[in-house]
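Hi, here's the filled form for the chain we discussed.

Project: internal
Contact: R.S.
Residues: 308
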Amino acid sequence: MSASLGEKRADFRCGFVTLIGRPNTGKSTLMNRLIGQKIAITSHKPQTTRTQIRTICTDDEAQVIFIDTPGVHIAKNKLGKYMVSVARGALKDIDVCLLMTDPDGIGDEVEQDLLRRLAGLSIPVLVIVNKADLYPVQKIADIVTRCREEAPFAEVFTVSALKGEGTDALFSRIKHLLPYGEALYEEDDVTDQPLRDIVAEIVREKALRLLTDEVPHGIAVQVEKMRERRTGAGEEITDIDASIICEKETHKGIVIGKGARMLKKIGQTAREDIEKLMQGRVNLQLFVKVRRDWRDDDRKLKELGYKK
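And the returned structure, exactly as it came back:
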């Protein structure tokens, strides 16, 4: 039996684990894999994650509280600076740090800076070489050797977050490194994110996957309304109004698409995931608004939740 909130067990572990790394190394995919369900959005486009996302995985041995972070990169606007600040801030008050990398990234300037920062931590650091299934065995072996040379303070694991290869051994090691302590969340809790935020992220994920490379970095999603109601037939339904925010009028046209087909497709695919999440019917209405250069505007960033 896993420990419930407030229950004390001498053999139970509980702690915080931060995932950090460059964009597109698979941090969110790994976190979703380890907790056994999808909470963080994913896409092949870099900088998909913009804020800290906290998820909880509880079993009979431990409660692991994962903190997913935005990809650390060389920021080109105020949103980028905010994201990097969020990622680096997640290195405080944690018990284990996972540095995500892949076979093409260990020599990257940003990653070298991260390694220098992590070397000064007094907690266990695990370097996770992701996408191991996509490269020859010898290349992975060479990368592991280099990781051990570059980060002698860390343990090195190879995984395929997408396929789940190596993740069981990794999760076992993470649990073993946590301090003993009672659970901080209920056994069935999987995230402390507000439902509105999760819904907004689902809509943004679908837009990221469906839109051209030109648009996604310049969009945000804001849930304007979320209200439950009962139909005349007695069926419960949740009405959700959400706005896709873009920076330019030309981008607005792309998001809407000819005959509003793109907007309808984003809405349809998002609604399917939201209904699975909420286990009920959803009436999702999407709108598109232009807020020029919002990524470099402090007031607009704060309105969209991207300011501390």
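Let me know if anything looks off before we file it.
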